[in-house]
Amino acid sequence: MAKLSFRLLERTPRQVRLTAAGQLLRTEWSRLLRELHAVHRHARQISSGEVGSVRIGHVGAAAYGWLPRLLARFTAHHPLVHLDLLEVSATEAEHPLLTYQVDVGFWREPATNPAFLSEPVLVEPLALVVPQQHWVQAETFTSLAALRGEPFVLPALTGPSDYVQTLRDVFRQYGFEPRGTVTSDFSTTMLHLVAAGLGISVLPLAYASSPLPGLRFLELPHQLTVYLVWRREDNSPVLRHLLAEARALP
């Protein structure tokens, strides 16, 4: 410690008191100690994942039920962590992770890039989506085969993604290729198009909780898996907490 070249104390016959310089040092040292303790506490919180941020990419259907439940559970346990959500097309899932736009994704297919890790977290049924006044009824509906002549609103079924392959396989089981005049990679857009009478669609049943009026959902005997995907080298403690919450969610 450096030797001070000035007096901190002054003595009188009755007392010892701080000099003006001593009073200044006491005030400033107290302030600096408080700041040092705050910095140390903040660093400890960052190291433990108590504070920080995580950017989450997700397919649209995840926002209707499962993802809100996960985020409610996560924020209850980690209220100081900031969450940033980005909805991503089911057919372009890996790109946001590769370009560091998101830290973790909830996609419809497992990771194919060796730079990623993935695991299934949710299995959900598919549903036939029709306008409210469509002729098909839940009581008499038996098979998609009865709808082979209907116009469908779907993503382009020529892509290589697992999601698209699942849809192709579904229609192949019923012996026809869907006829469509409108395609979209975003499910919310497809819902609006169906409600407007531009066709019918096959989408995850989770969308049945959408507030959009004018739609009916008929559950199909087919399922989709949602995968949790993240970068292999990412050791963020916040990410570890999110993974743990996702695995524990019923």
TrEMBL record:
Keywords: DNA-binding, Transcription, Transcription regulation. Residues 48-247 form the LysR substrate-binding domain. It comes from the Bacteria. Belongs to the LysR transcriptional regulatory family. PANTHER family: HTH-TYPE TRANSCRIPTIONAL REGULATOR CYNR, TRANSCRIPTIONAL DUAL REGULATOR HCAR-RELATED. This is Transcriptional regulator. It comes from Hymenobacter cavernae.
